[in-house]
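sorry for the late reply, my laptop died twice this morning and i had to redo everyting from scratch. anyway the thing you sent over, i finally got around to it. pasting the sequence first so we're on the same page, its 497 residues, then the predicted structure underneath. double check i copied it right bc i was rushing
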Amino acid sequence: MSLHSSSEYVKIFKFVHSPTSPSYPNLLQSAQQNPRWLNLNSTSFKKPRFVITPYTTSEVQAAIICSREHGLQIRIKSGGHDYEGLSYLCKSPFIILDLINIRSIAVDLEEENAWVQSGATLGELYYSIAQESKVLGFPGGLCPSVGVGGHFSGGGIGTMVRKYGLAADNVLDAYIIDAKGTILDRKSMGENLFWAIRGGGGASFGVIIAWKVKLVRVPSLVTVFTLHTNLDKKTSKLVQKWQSIASKQPEELFIRTIIQKVNNETVVVLFNSLFLGPVNKLIPLMSKSFPELDLRAQDCISMSWIESVLYFTGFKKEDPLEVLLDRTVQYKSNFKAKSDFVRKPIPESALEEIQKRLLEEEELAMLIMEPFGGKMDLIQETKLPFPHRKGYLFNIQYLVKWSGEGETEAKKHLKWINGVYKYMKPYVSSSPRAAYINYRDLDLGINEEQNTSYSQAMLWGRKYFKGNFKRLARVKTRVDPGNFFRSEQSIPLFLHC
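ok and here's the structure:
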């Protein structure tokens, strides 16, 4: 690339950061949710040749084309929440394309939609919507520092999933830049590629620059509550009842259950809920369907939808909405997560064993269970790559966090979560045992070589996508036949299978 003037030199190096740049170390660490991957001096991973922070689509195109010409792989980062670090780690020479400066949001109240660029966070999107309307929202995830680029392209589960489905179910259009550097919208990319990027993991197909999303109607006031109690035989029966009824409630009601160790002797259960309606409608509903919980009006809080976003994040009702604009990851710590989907209630005996195992873990450990049903039962599993729809009662996220450093410390906690995951096998979905791509888990299998076969990738592909995996591989082969956009769990080419 030639430099024709000093001003062009300044412009280029404004968004190209080399290892000698003062900004390089901070960019590597900013917004990376999982510090256990931050040891980039590890012999397993290389440091990126450059971190690119483009401001325009033409700069993204240049980064793609230059990377191809120089044999560099590319990692695409919007928020940095990739559980296994694939948005900023690589074993081959590579660059990081950090979309932090491509984050504009335009809300159209008349059409009730919005264009949001991939580098924006969920918090920035929610804040922008709330600034324009008190009766519109968006059904995305709970963590405001998550980038929309990764969240949408993996599906996107949130508190309104039973009413409006996944975030990806509400995407209307998108702009993607392919391996040739060509910008495509929904019409020019075609329905197969548009289908693939809404739940199939967008980084396998190109760089998604922006998304057009449908906004959804929310009441001016919603109701939230959190009830918690120590896990004992009585509480186990509550969890048992929750498993049977949570997915069958009116679609306006979302009640998730969190089973969590709080100290060396205590495991608690939290029933954490959003109801898209007033308290005086929620109480009779709960009294009829879940009287054992004994929910009372004084347990509930009325607030706006945007205040409920703060509530589920852990902020206080009186906190300013501007906290949603903070891209800093809260509660950053080393962690490992795994996932499951459940078709029939887990027996009480298994819950008792889970309690025992939680107490055996020395640091923070939990199971987060989120109900499906409602809208999710009405969407066919082939509608989008995300197939876990009708018949699933809830999903589980297993999570362990620890403060210590080093490989020995990490192995101890990884052994614990792997043991829990193995124990749960008889009680969760099977053939395949399903998993959620946004809770990415490299234990399910990886692509070791550039042209990993479709059959080898089936180890993890069927768990994330079930029968949709073959279609994803066919789309990949058509739009990126050179397999330029690849990682340890990218969609493979449909070859030699």
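The chain is about 30% helix and 20% strand.
thats about all i looked at so far, will dig more tmrw
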